[in-house]
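Write out this protein's structure.
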Amino acid sequence: MMRPLRSCAAALACALALAATARAQAPAAAAAGYPDRPIRLIVPFPPGGGTDILARLLATGLAGQAHWTVVADNKAGAGGTIGIGEAVKAAPTGYDLVLGQKDNLVIGPWLYKNLSWNPTQDLVAVAHVAYTPVLIATSANSRFKTLADVLAAARAAPGTITYGSPGNGTSIHLAGDLFEKAAGIELSHIPYKGSNPALMDTLAGNVHLLLSSVPSAMGQIKAGKLRPLAVTSARRSTSLPEVPTVAESGFKDFDVSTWYGLFAPAGTPAQVIGILNTEVNKLLATADIRAAIQAQGAEPEAMSAAQLGALLRTDYARWKGIVQASGAKID
């Protein structure tokens, strides 16, 4: 005997309601026991660099604080965009995270035209970790004692003062381009394949200035071989408190920094994001982790996941024009 249509409709409605309830409860169930296995933290650069060191500080800190197992997984290449792509393709469970930064999340998409992902659509913000300014420095033997000396020389002979950077299209190169525009000067940019070659040529006197991250230059500063002239952040670097900011040197509101943050694949449950954000922010409040991050020349800074997401969206839109105006191209 055929079941009456009314009964079939009721059964179907009941099944749909149960399915909807199950879907609604799934994220909460996933978060309830999270994490119950190791978390993979993708590092989009090779071992030993600043991003890698920061990622391993987080992994060690979370192991001690929350008793989590966090495994750093280096996926380097293409300016960090390969590692970001790896995270985008991962399952949105909270067990695959990536430590991204301005270079690969904000600038990279405007330089690499064939990327298959969009950072504002394919990733979800988890927790801000730290930021670092760009350092403007020169050899200890240089005739430039202050940033004002550089400005005077550049205005007297436009285009003759050279500066080295880790490469075309990096946030450090673009910081130099923005500084030129703010100061109304013309410098000559010499791109290198990484920070160390640029540093070595600055020490040798082959270029007048070095634009670099603070961690990359700290060893030579401490050795007395490199003279820091200014940092590009709004506030002075904790690692170099005696070095003025560009803003203090006459360029009000100048602020160019590189930030680092944890991200997860889009669709990761909000409850899991909340657990991660709480633990990372708790870690960033401890004296030991703050000191360890500052020793690398970075500044720890906690944010809510929503604040980091807003930062990503704002910078992503802003830096499109900056990249295009600079004429930066991939080497």
